[in-house]
Amino acid sequence: MNITRVIGRCALVMLVLATAACVHRPGLTPPANLREHQQQVQAIGDWQLSGKLGIRTAEDSGSASLKWVQQTASYQLNLAGPLGQKRMIISGQPGNVRLEQTGEPAQEAKTPEALIKKQLGWTLPVTQLAYWVRGVPAPKGRITRLEQNDAGLIAQLQQGDWLITYSNYRDQTFNGKTLALPGKITAEYQDVRLILAIRQWQLGPQQ
After folding, report:
1. What's the CA dihedral at 66, 67, 69, 74 to 10 degrees?
2. Which of 58, 140, 164, 192 is deepest in the core (most CB within 10 A)?
């Protein structure tokens, strides 16, 4: 399969992420309580991240730059790749998700899961990604594994069919509070492996 097609189609899968083992970084502020930490992170409705997304399947691999802007229930994911050759925008809100890709007609569906099913033929719990990417379990979905690192943060999470590994946590400040968020996330499902290296977090409304 052509790598451009892998990124073009599997970038949707990106609504399902990836990483490597978790390390307690010097200067990281440990949460007093993991549940309290998760509640504080989930309470932040507006946030954005930028970084690089790598995708590996049994047939091919590639990478793309990613900017994810979340505004409560609305979101936009902007991907450029592979190697800047293609651009994809996934925007959504409750009841409607739209996929725009260079050189192809726009696609719409009621949910991101339905859109991925339509494009890839897979059933993926993509709504959970907005939680997973911040280092917290999704509210729905059976957790079969949860391991914490030395700082008390999640090192590895198995929820549903996906295994998510976290590393490179960094302190972020929001409303005077210091919260540790992951800098690298790896998600694996069957022969799909997604790796997100986060370059920058911004918590709160866009400036």
Report:
1. -40
2. 164
> How far is Cα 33 from Cα 17, in angstroms, rounded to an integer?
25
13 secondary structure, DSSP code: T
**pTM of the model as a whole:** 0.81
Best CA proximity match to 40, nearest among 48, 49, 31 = 31
Rounded to whole angstroms, how far apart are CA atoms 21 and 23?
7
Of the candidates 104, 92, 106, the one whose C-alpha atom is nearest the C-alpha of residue 15 is 92
> Which residues 6+ apart lie within 8 Å of 28 measured at CB?
151, 169, 170, 171, 180
Tokens describing residue 63? 């990478």
Overall average pLDDT of the 54-80 stretch? 86
Residues 41-48, mean pLDDT to the nearest whole number: 93
What tokens does 188 get?
């694996």
* Contacts for 124 with CB less than 8 Å, ≥ 6 apart: 13, 15, 16, 113, 116, 117, 189
Check pLDDT > 60 for residue 3: no
